[in-house]
Design goal:
By secondary structure, the protein is an alpha+beta fold. It has one domain: Gamma-B Crystallin, domain 1. It has a four-stranded antiparallel beta sheet, with no helix packed on it. A hairpin with a 7-residue loop joins β5 and β6.
């Protein structure tokens, strides 16, 4: 029974990792993806906090688009950053404070 349960868990994890929108993104407090790392969140178009962060990387492969906002509710657009994934680091230098972001699991910046 334990073996069956373990097999189900492994299959479930693989299915989640392969599902569209399951791509991960991590924001960092320092430039060049240094300093404290934030939560590893899904790159699924949902709104996430970016306050106190300076850079990010998308750990999944493939082109993604990350959109940044001045407020914490993803309403006041500042800039968009294409990201090639595969843990390529992007430094966020917008000239203003960034409060939140959305990540698209494809190259479309229309979040």
């Amino acid at each position: 029974m334990q073996l069956l349960s373990l097999a189900f868990t492994v299959v479930s994890m693989v299915a989640y990792m392969a599902a569209p929108g399951a791509a991960d993104i991590i924001a960092f407090s320092g430039t060049e993806c240094s300093g404290n790392a934030g939560d590893n969140v899904a790159c699924d178009g949902s709104c996430h906090q970016f306050t106190g962060r300076e850079s990010f990387k998308v750990t999944a492969s493939g082109q993604h688009c990350v959109t940044f906002f001045e407020d914490t509710g993803c309403n006041s657009l500042i800039a968009t950053f294409p990201n090639e994934g595969n843990s390529l680091c992007s430094d966020v230098n917008t000239g203003t404070a960034v409060g939140s972001f959305r990540c698209s699991a494809n190259d479309s910046c229309d979040n």
